[in-house]
Amino acid sequence: MSTRDEHLKPIEAKIVDYAKRRLRVFSGSERLEHSEIGDGNINYVFRIRDPKSGASAIVKYADANSRSSGKALDIDRNRIEAELLRLQGRYAPGLVPEVYDYDREMCCLAMEDLSDYAILRYELIKHKKFPTLADNIAEFIVNTTIPTIDAVAESSDKKRMVGRYINPDLCRITEQLVYTDPYTNRSGRNKVTPSNAEFVKRELYDDEKLRLEAAKLKYRFMNDAQALIHGDLHSGSIFVKGPMVKVFDPEFAYFGPIGYDVGNFIGNLCFAWANACVSIRDAREKEEYIGWLDETIARFVDLFARKFLIAFRQHVTDPMMSTAGYDEWFLSEVLSDSAGVAGLEMNRRTVGVAQVKDLTSLGDTDERTRAERIVILAAKDFILQRRAYSSGRKYCETLHEVAERVPG
């Protein structure tokens, strides 16, 4: 028996006992099936099912140590996730899974089983299209952040909420993996494709101007408590089923820059773009799918901006922040942050310890080398020229321009 199996055995016993005692969906169940389905680095995720009734639930267990590294982590992250899902369910109904229960003593969060949905990242790698995706995610971010910005929330209420969702352990992970390692590799954990070793050294490690801009963005992440954000809104945290979308896994939530959520989503669409650019052989199919991704990126950014201004003007309560022009200035700051974060996310998922299947699934060495270079060069422009990215079309223009420059 492996060390992991030995560790899981007592956890599994707790999970089944918890489900029988606490979850109404299993009322009267004598025997429950369970399987560990988590593929993340931090928590254990179980699917519990009653084979007789067909009732099921997902139970997320927050161990006192990280699943992958064994380092100590505050179990309060599960409380934050449970509360966030409930809040988001109120602000953006239908766009998050339903929470059934949170048990602080057991460190367990139980929620709706979405096994009939698919994870967006894997569907994009299969080059599938989702016409309502841009609309759904723009609506989700606007609806879940606007209620907690200073212009809308009552000042003392917001300050109490900032303290309630401070989330230091998981913020520290982000500060290291997103804002530091890709530009210094001081931890020695970066994973660089050998064919791109010199490229990465030149374009990331040795670029002092890029490091300076990344440092400025890190300061924003650490100090700008704009709104209560998801904190990890990538394509692996989104379920899809036809036109339906569910956002999950907000355990990294805290009060930070809204652009962190917006930029994460943009960056992950860019991974799908790079994957399609190098892996689709048929010219017509490639043009069609890249065209859909262009449209989705552009529509998402522009729709977010439009919805944000409408919601801001509808809900603003602060008299100073009601001043004409303040809303557009605030949005310009969010969009600038979004471009910078998109670039940071793209770099860290290319050379950092937590990489993405969009790139790692490319079995052909030349394809992966080219895809990574497209991602890194586009990411650098997003970071260095972030104030130029006020429209969605600008992102697409950069991706196409960079792809033309990178041999393939």
Could you describe the 3D structure shown?
With 408 residues, this protein is of the alpha+beta class. The protein has two domains: 109 residues, Phosphorylase Kinase, domain 1, CATH 3.30.200; 288 residues, Aminoglycoside phosphotransferase (APH), C-terminal lobe (Aminoglycoside 3'-phosphotransferase, Chain: A, domain 2, Alpha-Beta Complex). Helix content is 55%, strand content 10%. It has 15 helices and ten strands. Strands 1-2-3-5-4 form a five-stranded antiparallel β-sheet, with helices on both faces. Strand 8 and strand 9 form a beta hairpin. Helix 4 packs antiparallel against helix 10 and helix 11 runs antiparallel to helix 15. The longest helix is centred in the last third of the chain and has 33 residues. The N and C termini lie far apart (46 Å). The model has no long low-confidence stretch (mean pLDDT 94).
